[in-house]
Amino acid sequence: MNAFHASSSALNLFSSAFNQAVSQQHAVALWAQPGSENFHLLIDKHPNLQKQKTSWHNGDIGFILHSFLDKAGEQSLLLKPDLLFQLHALNSDDTKQLNAYTSAEHIDFPFHALESIDFSEEEQEQSAYTCKVEHLLEELKKGAVKKIVLARNKKSPYPIEKSPVEAVMALRNAYPNAFIAVAYHPSAGCWVGASPELLASSDEQGVFRTIALAGTQAYDPHKSLRDHTWNNKEIEEQAFVSRYIVNCFKTIRHREYEEEGPKNYLSGNLVHLCTSYKIEAGALGIDNLPDQLLPLLHPTSATCGTPKDKATELILQYEKTPRELYTGFWGPLNIEGKSSVYVNLRSAQWFANGYNAHAGAGITADSIPANEWVETERKLEAIRKIWS
Questions:
Q1: Tens digit of pLDDT for each residue in 195-221?
Q2: What is the CATH number of domain 126-155+197-387?
Q3: Residue 104: pLDDT band by 50, 70, 90 thresholds?
Q4: Where are the domains of the chain?
Q5: Which member of 39, 87, 127, 285 has the greatest number of CB atoms within 10 A?
């Protein structure tokens, strides 16, 4: 369970505390920012079981869990920091608190505390998925929608039993450039993920950032990252996301932003096209920019489609399994003066007897159904890496 160079004793403390929180029906989150070895552990002993309004500007603090369908800022689960620790800043007082919380005992993950997954339900095979893509291509020809992201899920028993904390450590090693998280809430269950896609961040200076991430191909280690090239379908798919973000800026009449890209972006075994956006909101005297933009940005064209309303209608029509937290967003809010939420991609929900992984592909007029299936398979491999 070694992630980078973190000490096994500190990780064991974090793991036991996480497992204790789940057993006590407390809400808990463990996460690390892209490129960081420093995991944060947050425990909410009295979780609010109802979704609530959240604000970046008005002092809300904690870890956000937000589903795909809910409106940003209006219907989030907010885990509040009754206990908050940093792996690399763990001191003797922190250790005492963690030992007091766990009664100084090693605690295994309580799989029995989670719901069981039903493997008898029919799985979506390749033929069913590609048939849906063909139907969506017909919808695209009608002109009411330009892009739809079609997701699927894959239920699997655990190859070997690993706790969610062990899973995120494995993902940290496999995806050093991703936001890595595992979170449990009594109302949402337990989710593990490795997201390459920043939805929004804001630092102490009020610098706001977001990215447009789309297009997917397998990484070829025999090529430089720069030499991975793109076809018209992938270029246009990413351009939809970029235009969508710029239109969000225009909606709030904001035109002062920096744009960089698109550039190739490596996430594990996959390469994406990425354009970065930056707004010096603090210097411009804009205090509540994230609260203005998040309801517009979520769900993005990268996870939903264009235009948003019609794409959502088709997603609900064609996707058999509700996405729930998949393609929603999660992350720390006003922790140490910073906030950053990421689209919940490359993720799976943990159950007592197995896991349910999710992946999607962007369907445009140039899509080839078989290729879209392959893209979802490559993305599902991110979760399978936990056991490799």
A1: 999 999 999 999 999 999 999 999 999
A2: 3.60.120.10
A3: confident
A4: 126-155+197-387
A5: 39
Establish how many alpha carbons lie within 13 A of residue 142's alpha carbon, considering only the half-sphere containing its beta carbon.
8
Instruction: Find out whether 6 and 26 touch, Cβ atoms under 8 Å.
Output: no
The token duo for 374 is 């392959």
- Please identify which residue in the block is written with the tokens 């007082």: 93
Exposed, middle or buried, 10 (CB in 10 Å: 0-12/13-18/19+)?
A: middle
